[in-house]
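Table S5 (text form). Sequence records supplied for joint modeling of the two-component complex.
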Amino acid sequence: MYKGKLKQILLITDGYSNHGEDPLAVASLAKEYGITVNVIGILDEKSKSGDGLKEIEDIAIAGGGISQIVYSKQLSQTVQMVTRKAMTQTIQGFVNKELKQILGSSNSIESLPPSKREEVYEVVEDIGETVSLEVIILVDTSASMKDKLETVKESLFDLQISLNSRTGDNAFSLFIFPGKHNDVDKILDWTPKLEKLNTIFPKLTMGGLTPTGPALREALNYFNDQSYSRGNYDGDDEQSIEWAD
Amino acid sequence: MVMMNNQSNGQINLAAGTLITGKWNKNQYKIKSLLGNGANGTVYLALSKNGEIALKLSKDSTNITNEVNVLKKITKVQGSFLGPSFIDVDDYINPYTKESYYFYVMEYVNGVSLPQFIERNGMEWSSIFIIQLLSLLSKLHDKGYIFGDLKTDNLLVTKEPYKIQWIDFGGVTQMGRAVKEFTEFFDRGYWGLGSRKAEVSYDLFSVSMIFIHLHSKKQFLKNGQGIKQIEQVIYQSPSLKPYKEFLLKGLEGKYTSADQMKQDLLMHEQKITKRNHQMKKVSKTSNAKTPNVTRSGQAATRTQVKVMQKKKRSHWFETSTIVLLLGLAYALYFYYQL
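The corresponding structure-token record, covering 583 residues in total, follows.
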């Protein structure tokens, strides 16, 4: 019924970007490529809430994704939930687009009567269960994230458990920002398993600026390079799900 | 695209007396009181033309629709009561703000929460309700679904006779898929003891955790030691220790069906009852913890357990013939009730 894959960028940060290009611009561009940007803001128990939060929400809005601001202890639940919700949302967005083409621009899933809606959501659920998913995870490693890194690792393991319980394939790739010498370092190439983080995470050096924009840019490029080189770039359509019949 | 950027799963506040008219079916519901607020919506007690109902309302149509899909499927088959029956689904447009809400209506289950019931009536009820829960699970599993988000908060005890009933079907998942919704303490993935694939053993893990939660009266956070940590909790609780094997088998995914787990609990129960009985004979003192329930109710449930054990060819020779006959009558009664 369908093929293709969903592409997401998962940004995990605890504050404002302060270096490089505007993350909102890059997130908007990612959306145009059919890549969803989700942002998770980690709140310090002691830190005053408020400051970096607006940007977190704005990046997700620009990137067509979901944002959530949480305390460290809720991170695991949140990371897997946001990722899955964003998948559903993307698929619904695609279905809505089709509906508008068939039924006119004022139509959406919500404008259908409940019984029809039930059928549509069942299909959305089927796709969410079976579709392939690629997630590039961007982890903020600026100094203030130091004592949150263990929790971030835990939450990524948890995400892996949830996603690998699906029927569909998953691939994760992980970048940190700032990197050792550059704005961004890739520390994990496409893999369905994240166990390697156990050895990688303790070696990370923290500190420096927060180049959120450049990190998003790197993730976007990585998605696109890979698509072109693999020759399966579905650039004729901003959505990355293709429907055959 | 439907934007849900800010997942403020906030409670939807409706004043008592608010009249909700469905956009499609035009049915009317008068809000009475708030029943609860969860991640996927707010539940109200309301009045329909046919009496009291529960109405679940959300700003997001996804969860509401998915729950309706599940409710319709699992309550479709007649004869076995697997959950509150589904009544209606519709949209509500607030006449003042023009905001859209999505809701469904189901039968109102009037009961007390399981921990509350046990607090009031005594710990000996825990096994009885776990046995009932396993019977419910067995039926749900037969339909190709698992409950998913099985936890003490989602279990109510209804009256006459006392019976366990689950609420909140947000986690019900078709077997073989990824579990839709879960709660960390009751989730084997959280403890590093398995995947989140919807399989029988996923629910049975939660059953063990519910049992542990009821007895230890606490939910604890993981310390990274996996099953060892839970094992320690079992060892440290005198009332959990006799159930050690039963609980561990549930946690380790060794039961292949809810029925198998139920039979095993019945066997454990029999051993424990026997041991207590002998201890009582020796000490000749009455049990200090007399539950605060009607005598008949207590007797009925005790007998039920005894007779079920008898089915398993146990050695209940002490039991007098009168109790046996009475018991058999009760067994039949319960059998048809379940």
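Note: Chain B touches chain A at residues 1-7, 24, 61-62, 65-66, 68-69, 72, 89-91, 100, 102, 176-179, 184, 189-190, 195-198 (CB under 8 Å).
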